[in-house]
Amino acid sequence: MIPIENFLLLSALLFAIGFYGVLARRSAILILMSVELMLAAVSINFIAFAAYMDPEAFTGLIFALFVIAIAAAEVGLALGIVLRVFRERRSSMVDDASSLKW
Amino acid sequence: MTMEQVWLLPAIPAGVFVILSLFNRVLPRRGDFVAVLGMGTVVVLAVLAIADFQGAFHDGHFAPAPGANTYEFTWVNIGDGVLRIMFSTYFDAITAVMVFVVSFVALMVFLFSIGYMHGEERYGWYFAVLSLFAGAMLLLVTTNSLIFLYLAWEGVGLTSYLLIGFYWERQSAAEAAKKAFITTRVGDVGFLIGIILLWRVAGTFDIQELIHLAEEGAFSETYLTVSMIFLFMGAVGKSAQFPLHVWLPDAMEGPTPVSALIHAATMVVAGVYLVARTLPIFDLVPIAQNFVLYTGLFTAVMAATQGLVANDIKRVLAYSTVSQLGFMFVALGLGSVTAAMFHLLTHAFFKSLLFLGSGSVIHATHQQEVEHLGGLWRKLPITTVTFSIGSLALAGIVPFAGFWSKDEILLEAFELNPFAYAVLAGTAALTALYTTRVVLLTFAGRPRDQHAYDHAHESGPIMLLPLVLLATLALGSGFVAFDGVGRALGFVGGIGQVVTSHGEPHSFAFHPNIAVPATVLALLAIGAGFEYWGGNAIRAERARQWAPELHALLVNRYYMDNLYQAFIDRVVLGLAGIVARFEKSVVNESGVDGGAQTLNWMGFRLKFLQTGRIPNYALGMALGVLVLSIFALGGGE
Amino acid sequence: MTHNYGLLAPEFILFGFAMLVVAVDTFRSQFKVGSAVLAATAGVGALAALGASVAMAGVHEEFGEILVVDEFTTFFRILFAATVVVVIAMSHEFVGKHIRHPGEFYSLLLLSTIGATFMAAARELLTAYIAIEVLSFSLYVAVSLAKTDPRSGEAGLKYVLLGGVASAMLLYGLSLLYGSGGSTSYEVLREAFAEQAGEASALTLVGLAMVIGGLAFKASAVPFHMWTPDAYEGAPLPITAYLSATSKAATFALLLRLLSGPLEPLIEDWRWMLATLSVATMVVGNLVALQQHNIKRLLAYSSIGQVGFMLMALVALSDQSTSALLLHLSGYLITNLAVFTAVIAFYNRTGREEIEDFRGLAETQPYLAVVITAGLFSLSGMPLLAGFATKFLLFQAAASGGYLWLSGLAVVMSTISLYYYLQVVKQMYFFEPSGDASRWRLTPSGYVLTAVLLVVMVIVGLYFGPLYEVADTAAGALFA
Amino acid sequence: MQERTALPPQFDRPIMLGGLLAGAVATPLLVVLVALRVVGLISSPEVVFWMAFGVVLAGALGTVMLSNIVHAALALVFTLLGIAAIYLLLGQEFLALAQVLVYGGGVTILIVFGLMLTNATEDPIVSDGAQKPFAFGVGILLALVFAVALLGHHWPAVGPAVISGAEFGERLFGEYTLAILTVGVLLDIALSGALLIARPDSPEESAE
Q1: What number of CA atoms fall less than 13 Å from residue D187's CA on the CB side?
Q2: Which chains reach chain C with 3 or more Cβ–Cβ distances below 8 angstroms?
Q3: What is the CATH number of domain D15-128?
Q4: In the CATH scheme, what is the code of domain A4-97?
Q5: Could you report the per-residue pLDDT of B338-358, keeping only the tens digit for each?
Q6: Can you spell out the DSSP letters for D96-110?
Q7: Residues 9-68 of A with CB under 8 A from D
Q8: pLDDT tens-digit map of B163-220
Q9: Which residue, B444, B304, B466, B310, is CA-closest to B377?
Q10: Predicted ipTM of the assembly
Q11: Which of A43, B498, B609, D41 has the least C-beta neighbours within 10 A?
């Protein structure tokens, strides 16, 4: 039997790494990928909690399913926007999309 | 029209505002007659209300039948009494004085404006805003609810802003308008805080109820002191007291009739009115009351010294207004509603007279620097006479109105606070000095700007009528101090019998030991003024006509001129310069403008956090959530 | 399990009309009809939803475990429906010139309103989350819809990426709360947290912090606000208006339900967080606004400042402060929409959006200048207008909730706000028009819409009693 | 699903590199875990867990650290598949399947297309800016905060419950029907929105 802490630890590390990626990367697509890591961490959390703590109602499982679906949709939408920005600026680096400021 | 129906007074000009702002372009003469008719009606109604007020005295005390001098209805009732705001009016002696002053001076200014503003592009809009101002001001003085008082308070501020910036083509006017609005708003913040503080404990905005509760000890003394000082902040801003006085001289960018109405006679005394109205509460908290006293005292002196060095005729008058308002606050700080309201009354007449007179000069010459005026008495005889009457009233010379009211204040000070007395007496002398200077430089001597002088001509009757009427009042209104005069007007007695302090009527008595030194001092100051600014032409003229043996004396006087000059240069002007520099660097730049600059600077630094780069934004979020969770963990254990 | 789908009639109407608009758009070129028909269709849909919402006032019924239609929901439903009506009405002329896909634009407005309503109605975390994402996704798309303006794409990129990060934070927090409370139902969570009250576990606390961080992003509270000015500037103007109205109000609706429900037992643990955010938000928002030159950015920072004020009501959470917040939100929405309608009309005419471009508007279009002035004064809390009355109640509610210092700061910040609003007023009234000085007219719908909003603004300012009663009833549903 | 997509030739090298890297990480890990199992310190599921753990984290680190964008994308695939394994360990076959299909298939392909369309496939240098130290700090602090939160909680000593697919579906389409409908709206918004935004504005299109 694997204790729940193991899963939660994995998820916590994954989330932290994802956040690091968001902060450290400069390509819009890589930032998007880092966000996906964070969302995957969320799914692990929900499923682990559902399986260990809430086996009767298991809302966490349903939550995780929706998170997966919405995250996928978000990738699609965000890539659409990245493409538009790329067409206008010939770059998908977020530093090149910084004309709006101050 | 009874005291109960006094709510009609603000309603009429407000209605005029609506009509004029919508239809001024289609009405004949841009609708100025509507404004004048409206204001005339208000004056009549105000007089009727005051007549009703006169009938409510029994045994020499104001004792109206219950409810006869109030009117109220529930405006908002939230949570069944948790927050109940009533619209209510209240009429007593203070209201009577204010209503008369506001409506009468407003009518005079409206009349004057017909001539003065003739041909202006936004003539109709001008009268619309002026009417709105009158409505807000009348609401301010008649309402009994602090909330509506605050509404009206902001309303007069807004109209003042619009009118100061009336000549918005001039950058300086636009800046002055903004400065006035922001500076007074600083005071208003304190005012609002004060209102909320009082309300938190008392649960009501009704001023009379608040006074009642405070006298019964519903508040702790410290709490009340703090609340009243906050409340007083509103008065400091609106009445241009130190350190928020800086806006008033700049406010002279507005049309001159506006200065007469708003920045001399009515709006700026709103602070005096507020403190007078709540004086029973101030009486309970000596610290707050002393705060009022010393603020007023300091402002009176400081502004008077500044008046000595200003060159713009209107600015001199503005400084003098600030100084006179200081006098009124001193009276209130000493606990005398009578003296404060009396001075408010006479000051309204003679100061609006002075402003309208200066308006007449400016209208004639298009010049408002005294350096460029001079000798105008030949061209503008009526203006000169009326202006001089106003000046004598301001200088406090018997028997002009200012003498009697200033005497009341000096008397109070003499009895209660000798230090204040000494300072005020000195300030009164300074007042006489700078008044003399303005009059002489403007009207006497040789014209210094020949072109302006050649084109000058006396104003038309529509402008002279207000001048004459106001001059009459500047001459005569002081006599209401006497019981006999008061009775002749239908009151129970002199102003001391009607406008009572602490509910105790008193009769006017002449105190030679106060009046004589004050008068002598004022006369000396005027003499000094004549010596210094009399103008060579007049002096030479006089010297030829009198006797040749006096010529030597005149020469000697010339040395004395140097002496005066040295004294004034080194001491008075030096002091004034120090004050001016203090004001410029400390108050104006660090205090008011400086405050704004610091904020602007902070805004400037902060805006660079907004780098436009997504990872930087995300870092902000990350740090935010980290701080929240780390502190949550720290606090949770 | 049977649900009473009739409860959701307004949302079904919105969805139906959203699809209809897209369908009409598809066949538009064949029938040679202009884009006005799209606006009309969408407007009818929004009005129908508004009517249905009003007709359902007084209903108090639960929709399964996941939603509840009570007075609170109805209040926001009406607010959102009314907002979308106004936004559709204000955007018609703009859409024709500057929007790529008019059909999509209107259908997005309608669909996002469903999300906003569900945010107010959710009584369960999963539904709340989905509702948030429906609204957010619509806005991500809508922000990027301006054609030919590269700022639009950039704004969309920033919004979608940072929004994803915020969603992840929010979700992680929700998962921790779920783990700690054992359920996603507000009721069950409330019981679970009531046991933890005063000694919440570390898990709950971190979850709480992350949930508040995630929602603070949606509400644009400092330091989670940085997307706001950029998205406001880059978005098409009507969407900026919509962002500042519905998106903000919906977040506060969700926060209110969450904080007064499941998280209420933990009040001591989140109160200081919101107080901190509130202080930072009102200070930064108002100070940086002093430095802005673009009217959209100015309004963005001003709305951030307003969020700071609104957060105060959550800090001093009570029946009374909630009523005040609801009242303030409605007043703010009305005022803000009035300002934006005027700014859009100005933009349609001039194509400019810098504050300097408003020079001499009092000469060329005095009516519009009056509307903008009244709106800005109302935002700064000048008496006689909606902003004063509602702000007064809000500040007072915070003060009587024991947060006198916070409302004192708010009063100071509110005064500062007057300064930057006056910058705009100054440009309009105190300067000559810089270019073409001839007078021009608004469209008839522009006159009607601004006049209605202006009148409502004044009425709310003068006589807010009835609106307060409604807000109070709505707030009562939360604190029953 | 992924196997069916024809990859451009430039992907050959990265895939090979990725495989080598994965092998280099996985082999020692596997050896250690098997040794521990033999000694009897851990159970068989735990061996699998720690392997998945290693794969997931190594993949995640690769995603955020590799300077070649394509390598990073492939590392992400490892992570996502590793997570599917974690779901299996938790007894949720259905979700594991969804994870593989949606993420391992759909999302990855989307991302790869995104990379190709933005010409980022051969862009090896990612100018990660001066913010990197802050990013490290944030990452480490976040991990610490979570660790404290996890350790500070009292966890029940039970195993994961296995939820049957039938039960899951019943609840999903019973109580959460409305949620499904709403997500439908959301997907509609996202996908049509993405399409509209990404499509270039041609003159004839605006004329339509």
Answers
A1: 13
A2: A, B, D
A3: 1.20.120.1200
A4: 1.10.287.3510
A5: 889 899 999 999 999 998 888
A6: HHHIIIIIIIIIHHH
A7: 9-10, 12-21, 23-27, 29-30, 32-34, 36-37, 40, 43-44, 47-48, 50-53, 55, 57-58, 61-62, 64-66, 68
A8: 888 877 777 787 778 778 877 887 888 888 888 888 888 888 888 888 888 888 888 8
A9: B444
A10: 0.89
A11: D41
